[in-house]
Design goal:
13 strands; 2 domains; Peroxisomal Thiolase, Chain A, domain 1
C-alpha cells in the first residue's frame, strides 16, 4: 500500500531585533572608504531592486538551537502533536552554532527541557538555500520506505548576524543588503492509506560543483551576484518546467508557486510572463519582512502562508543556493489529516 508523506505542522521563529534598510546602509557607509562608494548605498534601492524592507538579526543569546526549538514547538502545536510522537529530527543549516554536536541534536536537547520525550535520532544536512526541499526529500524517503512515521524538520541560518563581511568593499554591500536571520520547522507524517491523494508527489534535486560564485570562506559569505542571479533564474525555469511537464501540470492547475526568498527580481524573472507565466496571486512572498533567511527561507514562507492553503491544492516549490544546489518539489496540500 502506498504511503503519503504530508506536512502536518508548520512553524517559524524570528529574532527580536528588526533591522531596517536605513540601518544597514548607515553601517555600510561607516565602513566605505570613498565618497563614491557611500553614495551608491541607498535604502530605497534595496527595496525596489531586492524587495526587502526589514530583516531580523539574532543576538548572542538567540542561537540556532534556541530559534530552531521555538519554531519546532510552534510546528508541533500546529500539528497537534507532541515530541513523543517524533521518530526522527532532520536539521538544515549552513551556519551551525558548533561543528558538533549537530544542530538537530541541540534542538532536541532544548525541546526535552520543555516537553516529555525519549531518544530520537537526529542529524543535519547542508544544502544552503535549498535546504528545506532537500530535508523534505529525505523525510519523504524515510517515510515511504516505512522506516519512520513522523519526522520533524528544523531549519535555521544566522548569516546576517554571523557571516557578513561588513568591511569588504564589494562583498559587504552585496551580502549585507540581502540576508536576515530566522528559523523554520515542518512536521511531516506518513499515512498508509490509498485514499489519501495528498502529500509530496515528485521532486528533482540538482547540483554542480561550484565554490567560486557563492560560498562561505573564512566564516564570511562571498557571492558573485550577477552569476548567482543568472543561475537561479535559469535553474528555476528549467526545473519547474520539467517537474510540471512530467506531472502533466499547467500554470493554471497549480495553486501556489513557493520560491526561495532571495531576491524579488529573481522570482519575478522565474515566474513572470517571460518565465513560467504565473500570476502574482499564485506567488506569495516574505522577502519584504524577513529578508533572505538562507536555508530556512522556504520553510518560513510555507509556515507564514500555510493558513491560506486549502487541502487538495497543488503546490510547486523551488530553491537554489550554494553548492551550487537547486531543487524543485511538487506536493498536494493535505494538512489536517491527523486531526481527522
Amino acid at each position: 500500500m502506498a504511503i503519503s508523506a504530508i506536512i502536518e505542522g508548520t512553524g517559524l521563529a524570528l529574532p527580536k531585533q528588526r533591522v531596517t534598510n536605513e540601518q544597514v546602509v548607515r553601517r555600510l557607509q561607516r565602513n566605505s572608504t570613498t565618497e563614491a562608494a557611500r553614495e551608491k548605498l541607498d535604502p530605497d534601492w534595496i527595496f525596489s531592486n531586492i524587495g526587502i524592507r526589514v530583516r531580523h538579526k539574532a543576538s548572542r543569546s538567540e542561537t540556532n538551537a534556541s530559534l530552531g526549538a521555538s519554531a519546532a514547538l510552534s510546528a508541533l502545536q500546529d500539528a497537534n502533536m507532541s515530541l513523543e510522537e517524533i521518530d526522527y529530527i532532520i536539521g538544515s543549516t549552513s551556519t551551525p552554532d558548533d561543528f558538533t554536536p549537530s544542530f538537530a541534536s541541540t534542538v532536541h536537547e532544548q525541546l526535552l527541557s520543555v516537553q516529555k520525550g525519549g531518544d530520537i535520532p537526529a542529524s543535519d544536512k547542508n544544502a544552503a538555500c535549498s535546504g528545506t526541499i532537500y530535508a523534505l526529500v529525505e523525510a519523504c524517503a524515510y517515510i515511504k520506505a516505512g522506516m519512520y512515521k513522523t519526522i520533524l524538520i528544523v531549519g535555521c541560518d544566522r548569516v546576517f548576524s554571523k557571516h557578513i563581511d561588513w568591511k569588504h568593499p564589494t562583498m559587504g554591500p552585496a551580502t549585507a543588503q540581502l540576508f536576515g536571520d530566522g528559523a523554520c520547522a515542518l512536521v511531516v507524517r506518513g499515512y498508509a492509506d490509498s485514499k489519501y491523494s495528498f502529500g509530496i508527489k515528485d521532486f528533482i534535486l540538482s547540483g554542480r560543483g561550484n565554490t567560486e560564485d557563492l560560498a562561505g570562506r573564512r566564516g564570511k559569505v562571498h557571492m558573485h551576484g550577477g552569476k548567482v542571479f543568472k543561475f537561479a533564474v535559469t535553474e528555476g525555469r528549467r526545473l519547474l518546467r520539467e517537474a510540471m511537464m512530467r506531472q502533466g501540470l499547467t500554470v493554471h492547475s497549480v495553486a501556489w508557486f513557493l520560491l526561495h526568498q532571495a531576491n524579488k527580481r529573481i522570482n519575478d524573472a522565474i515566474l513572470g510572463e517571460q518565465g513560467i507565466g504565473a500570476k502574482e496571486n499564485q506567488c506569495p512572498s516574505t522577502i519584504d519582512i524577513f529578508g533572505n533567511t538562507a536555508g530556512s527561507s522556504l520553510g518560513m514562507l510555507i509556515a507564514h502562508n500555510a493558513k491560506n492553503f486549502k487541502r487538495g491544492e497543488k503546490i510547486m516549490l523551488f530553491a537554489a543556493g550554494a553548492g551550487l544546489t537547486s531543487a524543485v518539489m511538487y506536493m498536494v496540500w493535505g494538512k489536517g489529516i491527523h486531526a481527522t
